[in-house]
Amino acid sequence: MQEYLSTFVRSIFVENMLFAYFLGMCSFLAISKNVKTAFGLGLAVTFVLLVTLPINYLLENYVLKEGALRWLGEAFQGVDLSFLSLIIFIAVVAAIVQLLEMIIERYLPALYNSLGIFLPLIAVNCAILGGSLFMQQKEFPNIGFATTYAVGSGIGWLLAIVGMAAIREKLQYSDIPKPLRGLGIAFIITALMGIGFMSFSGVKL
Amino acid sequence: MDSKNKLVLFNPLSKNNPITVQMLGICSALAVTSKLEPAFIMAISVTAVVAFSNLILSLIRNTIPSRIRIIVQLMIVAALVTIINETLKAFAYDVSKQLSVFVGLIITNCIVMGRLEAFALGNKPWASFLDGVGNGLGYGILLIIVAFVRELLGSGTLWNFRVIPESFYEAGYANNGLMILPSMALIVIACIIWIQRSKDKELQEK
Fold it and tell me: What is the DSSP string of B39-108?
């Protein structure tokens, strides 16, 4: 139990997708202009991470890894398909996003209206594919850890984008040098927030 | 090469730079710029991927149904990135280790998808190829500038060669450890944006 909790907290704060690895930066900068839409996007990212990561974990461990096809028989012992992992992971992400979009449109029209425009964007959000690639690198012992990691990184991303949106809402009233307005100041704020999150990096759990 | 193609090739280098103006491809750019060497390799890889995926998509653009085009695009890009990833593992293993997941993340680099959607879907193959090369180079130049500043100030080296003489350190000069942190890449890019936009007033936002 304690290990799960530690994975969870680590993935939210210490290894925050945005501030430690800068993943999902494009949508982070483009859609952090007001808190409500930022929150919607954050939820969508968390949800897609939660669905795709366990699937990719199973694929990685039962199909792609060296020796992962052992359950098919002794002849498959030495098969190593890991060079296919990029294509398979992104195919899963794209397919799940497409599927989710259709399901949500059919059964949860209210949610669809608030998330609708962001859902297709999420297929190309680096944080989602990044989650799968980090999962592959970390070699989690079982699917529970992978799921915990997925939820944690999703919540971390959500916190980051909501914080950023809140700051940018206030920024409208401040007097920024003209050339820095918009993108420039957003970069500087992200950097400062990143340095803030760095204070978690010494935390041992 | 006529003037229109020239514009397509050279505009992304400054006036329409993918990072500072179009706001694309920031994701994987920042984490790889603490040293020049990985930044350079990353720049070349991204240029190759953007150029060839633009070319391939532009060749088959009239046969793809528009509902599934995102998946088709992702498949083309993923195949190209896999080739690059395996090549790097074979010929530049150290750099490939340093770049770790960021080579794979070229797939979701917004420059690639952005240019496919915005340019290759509606233009002829040769123009699309040039657009890809131009945007790749525009991204590469920025990456190299950032890596240059960060490696020089952060480690006192360039391409792993020591450029700041030993006597400086003896006189009390110290490397700026802050520059090694990934956050500083954002500040360096913000400064570049600042300089570019004070020169070119058209780019300023309200």
Answer: HHHHHHHHHHHHHHHHHHHHHHTTTS-GGGHHHHHHHHHHHHHHHHHHHHHHH-HHHHHHHTHHHHTTTT
pLDDT value, residue B71: 81
Q: What is the pLDDT of residue B28?
A: 66
Looking at residue B30, the DSSP 8-state letter turns out to be G
In chain A, how many H helices and how many E strands?
Answer: 10, 0
* pLDDT of A154 over the 90 cut: yes
DSSP B203: G
Q: Does B78 touch chain A (CB under 8 A)?
A: yes
Does the beta-carbon distance from B206 to A181 stay under 8 Å?
Answer: yes
Residue A76, chain B, CB below 8 Å: the answer is no
Six token digits for residue A178: 């003209």
Q: How confident is the model at residue A69 (pLDDT cuts 50, 70, 90)?
A: confident
Phi, psi of B28 (to 5 degrees): -85, -5
- Contacts of B61-66 spanning 24+ positions with Cβ under 8 A: B61/B120, B61/B121, B61/B122
Q: Rounded to whole angstroms, what are the CA distances from B65 to A25, B59, B61, B62, B68?
A: 29, 14, 9, 8, 6
Look at the pTM and tell me if it is higher than 0.80.
yes
Q: Which residues does chain B have within 8 Å of residue A183's beta carbon, measured at their own beta carbons?
A: 20, 23, 193, 205
Domain count of the fold of chain A: 1
Identity of the amino acid at B55? L
Instruction: Decide if A166 touches B, using CB distance below 8 A.
Output: no
The residue written with tokens 């913000």 in the block is: B190
The fraction of chain A above a pLDDT of 90, given in percent, is 17
pLDDT tens, position by position, B100-153: 778 888 888 878 888 888 888 888 899 999 999 999 998 898 889 999 998 888
Owning domain of residue A90: 2-202
ipTM for the complex shown: 0.82
Six token digits for residue A27? 């949508």
Q: Which two tokens stand for residue B61?
A: 């653009």
The domain segmentation of chain B, as residue ranges, is 24-204
Q: Do the Cβ atoms of A91 and B75 come within 8 Å?
A: yes
Distance between CA atoms of residues B19 and B185, nearest Å? 12
Check if the beta carbon of residue B159 is closer than 8 Å to that of residue A140. Answer: no
B83 touches chain A (CB under 8 A): no
The Cα–Cα gap between A56 and A136 comes to: 9
